[in-house]
């Protein structure tokens, strides 16, 4: 990665240091280049939007030697562990497999944790902070592909299965594109919703997750392996959110009873078909209100609500504000 991508946009003196957020990005062999690119791109866009040096970062590895991503690329490193400004948050991408290196990484994470640092772990980086012994008592997540391995290696810890979690000084992310939602959530906390929205617009991004949102319960992430009938029900609902009476025709299309459908939703998703449908409609409405110049009435009908008043009441219950005041 070019050196210029890590340089601040403005001199350090332009913003008080106490307002900046420095990151020590720790890389291990096999880290996700997709994840790293998304993180750096979004932080850079935040700096550009604010015309500040709010975010700065350095790439490190356990011994300062080059590491290769899962696709073989090796970014230029800035040094070894700890060669970052005091107070820098740790962002851990990947976990070490060689015992001595793993112990050294764990010791560094523990030390930074004791000094009050914020710890962020993405993808297999969650293994690294688990091995550092700082996850007990915190909500955290891990990618579903690693869940069996994680449970075997850390039987006393229970990942939530969310796309990402933020619990005090520990943030964890399953990986993939969910990392964008996590970084944007951090950016909203640091710089406000207007900056987050501007960055989303700039990169043509639509948020999918909030902290704690299940990683497998969106309409595009079917549960075919567990229940193909439920998977098809989710697909139909997602495709036809604008139909006010979709639930009435759903059971006949699936060839099951209403009670059977309710059991599937209850046992697997811990919700009802009606609540699931309403949640998807509200999430779609929020996205439309964010990215489109359109009226609340138009959004209500496009999302399948029978009236504007019904939509407004449901929206306020979920988001705390009326649709017209959301953006």
Instruction: Based on Cα principal axes, name the global outline.
Output: globular
How helical, in percent, are the residues? 40-55%
Instruction: Look at the helices and sheets and give the structural class.
Output: alpha/beta
Quaternary organisation: single chain
Give a quick precis of the structure.
With 327 residues, this protein is α/β, with parallel strands linked by helices. The chain has helices at 33-50, 99-114, 125-131, 147-153, 178-191, 193-202, 228-239, 246-254, 258-269, 273-291, 296-302, 308-319, and strands spanning 21-27, 55-61, 79-80, 89-93, 119-122, 164-167, 170-173.
Description:
By secondary structure, the chain is of the alpha/beta class. Helices cover 44% and strands 10% of the residues. It is built from 12 helices and 7 strands. It has a 7-stranded mixed sheet with strand order 3-2-1-4-5-7-6, sandwiched between helices. The protein is globular. It starts with 20 loop residues before the first strand and ends in an 8-residue tail after the last helix. Residues 1-18 have low confidence and may be disordered.
Secondary structure layout plus pairing:
Elements: E1 21-27, H1 33-50, E2 55-61, E3 79-80, E4 89-93, H2 99-114, E5 119-122, H3 125-131, H4 147-153, E6 164-167, E7 170-173, H5 178-191, H6 193-202, H7 228-239, H8 246-254, H9 258-269, H10 273-291, H11 296-302, H12 308-319
Parallel strand pairs: 1-2, 1-4, 2-3, 4-5, 5-7
Antiparallel strand pairs: 6-7
What are its keywords?
alpha/beta; 12 helices; disordered N terminus
């Amino acid at each position: 990665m070019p050196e210029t991508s890590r340089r601040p946009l403005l001199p350090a003196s332009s913003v008080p240091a106490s307002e900046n957020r420095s990151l020590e990005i720790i890389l291990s062999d096999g880290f996700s280049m997709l994840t790293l690119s998304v993180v750096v791109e979004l932080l850079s866009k935040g700096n550009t939007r604010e015309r500040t040096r709010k975010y700065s970062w350095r790439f490190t590895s356990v011994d300062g030697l080059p590491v290769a991503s899962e696709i073989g690329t090796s970014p230029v490193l800035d040094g070894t562990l700890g060669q970052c400004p005091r107070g820098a948050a740790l962002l851990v991408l990947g976990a070490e497999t060689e015992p001595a290196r793993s112990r050294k990484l764990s010791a560094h994470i523990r030390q930074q944790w004791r000094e009050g640092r914020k710890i962020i772990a993405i993808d297999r980086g969650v293994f690294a902070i688990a091995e550092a012994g700082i996850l007990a008592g915190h909500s955290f997540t891990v990618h579903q592909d690693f869940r069996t391995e994680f449970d075997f290696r850390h039987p006393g810890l229970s990942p939530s299965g969310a796309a990402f979690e933020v619990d005090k000084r520990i943030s964890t992310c399953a990986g993939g594109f969910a990392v964008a939602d996590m970084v944007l959530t951090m950016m909203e906390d640091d710089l406000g919703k207007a900056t987050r929205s501007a960055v989303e617009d700039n990169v043509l991004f639509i948020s999918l997750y909030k902290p704690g949102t299940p990683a497998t319960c969106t309409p595009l992430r079917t549960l075919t392996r567990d229940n193909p009938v439920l998977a098809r029900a989710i697909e139909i609902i997602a495709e036809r959110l604008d139909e006010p009476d979709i639930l009435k025709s759903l059971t006949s299309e699936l060839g099951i009873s209403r009670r059977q459908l309710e059991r599937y939703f209850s046992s697997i998703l811990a919700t009802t078909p009606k609540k699931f449908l309403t949640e998807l409609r509200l999430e779609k409405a929020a996205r439309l209100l964010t990215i489109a110049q359109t009226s609340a009435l138009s959004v209500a009908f496009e999302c399948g609500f029978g009236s504007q008043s019904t939509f407004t009441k449901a929206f306020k219950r979920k988001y705390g504000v009326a649709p017209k005041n959301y953006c």
